[in-house]
Amino acid sequence: MSTPNSLRQELEAQLKREIAHLKELRVNLQRTVQLGRAVARDELDQLDAQLATARQKLEALTTTGSAAAKDLKEGFKKAFSELETATKNAAAKFNRPF
């Protein structure tokens, strides 16, 4: 049979273990958040680059003659399609509807 004092010591030890576990979880959460932010920044940087490519192709399309317009139009469509796919993929990773 446990004495009240030994039971109290046992419960205090268990409480200390749980406090330590929670501290460890907080540290892990902070690392995960930092990593998630870095990943999100990288995703958005890639999307910005793809957006810039699509803009360049659109600008080229508006300043070119009709002979080259077909080729540029296809290039723009491809760049826009890639941008759209990348944006949807990024939104899925961030678990947000787009």
The helicity comes to: over 70%
Instruction: Tally the beta strands.
Output: 0
What is the distance, rounded to the nearest whole angstrom, between the alpha carbons of the first and last residues? 62 Å
**Rg, nearest Å:** 28 Å
Q: Give a quick account of the main beta sheet: strands, pairing sense, barrel closure.
A: none
How many domain regions?
Answer: 1
How would you describe the shape? rod-shaped
Strand content: under 5%
Averaged pLDDT: 80
Which runs of at least 5 residues are low in confidence (pLDDT < 50)?
none
> What's the order of the H and E elements?
HH
The tally of helices reads 2
- The structure class reads mainly alpha
Description:
It is a single chain. This protein is mostly helical and 98 residues long. The protein has one domain (4-93). Helices cover 90% and strands 0% of the residues. Helix 1 runs antiparallel to helix 2 (66-93). The chain is rod-shaped and about 95 Å long.
Write the layout of secondary structure elements.
Elements: H1 4-63, H2 66-93
Helix pairs in contact: 1-2
Quick overview:
The protein is mainly alpha-helical and 98 residues long. The protein has helices at 4-63, 66-93. It has one domain.
Question: Which short descriptors sum up this protein?
Answer:
98 residues; mainly alpha
